[in-house]
User: What shape does this take?
Amino acid sequence: MSLSHWPPVSVVMPVLNEERHLSEAVGRVLEQSYPGELEVVLSIGPSKDRTMAIAEGIAATDKRIRIVPNPSGKTPAGLNVGIANASHDIIVRVDGHGVLTQGYIRRAVELLEESGADNVGGVMAAEGRSAFEMAVACAYRSRLGLGASTFHQGGKPGPADTVYLGVFRRTALERVGGFDETMHRAQDWELNYRIRKTGGLIWFSPDLSVTYRPRSSLTAVAKQFYMTGQWRREVIRRHPETASKRYLAPPVAVTLLVLGTILGIVGLATGVSWLVLGFLAPLFYGLGLIAGSMVEGRYLPWKALFWLPLVCATMHVTWGAGFIVGLKERPAGPALAATA
Assistant: This one.
């Protein structure tokens, strides 16, 4: 592709409570050395930390950065606001805790042209700093933690159901009405599903990689995955044809663990010995996690390796529990951005 033909791009970042990572995330965008015109639209929600002050400080140093308000603080609303205020026809989504690798935007634009796709994306390369975060990152990348998702583990380039973040053609976003603002989680998967349903192509490439900074406490991980489970159930409620073994495995596992534990307790209380065998479910699960962690986390520092089984169990159980419980109040229905 000739340098004279590189199209301008708009980087849209929905941001909320990101004082730890925002400077690094924006800095990596500005360091991309993209040969075409580039702007950054920061869609800032009502943060409880210094996010806005940091954003204003960064914007004051570079005229390519603009700040727009996202009063709801919800990610899909922030994305739609940012896209509505973006100037260009190629939209690069970046999160406030995501760090682009060098050359990401340039390669993504090349892939859009080469593949003819409506959205291209790559690998969510989880990377922790503390021992706990290293364990969470390992769980993200391994089959033991999040299963066999291509955008967590990598794979061959080609059509995909979804990709991490994404670099979109504006025409595709307008065709489907943008992000559904009633989907507070899983909005990227749901959007890519609608793009595919209208004949669009989602393209995965391992050439694209974004460093993801994971949650830094077990409580934060538990909350994140519980909500993810709730919203995954909502996706399946709206689109039953998207149910798969991978998404149903966590709620089935939680159900078996709970039933096994209850049977074991009843067996101890009543003296019915065969019911005590119910304890085998949590026992084998725990032993499997420990054995799997020793394999998947063999390269980790010992403190991170210590955390890994507990992190994986927290992800599995809270995701499954969130799926089983579901949302307390169902969203009123799809709330899509107005098309141009």
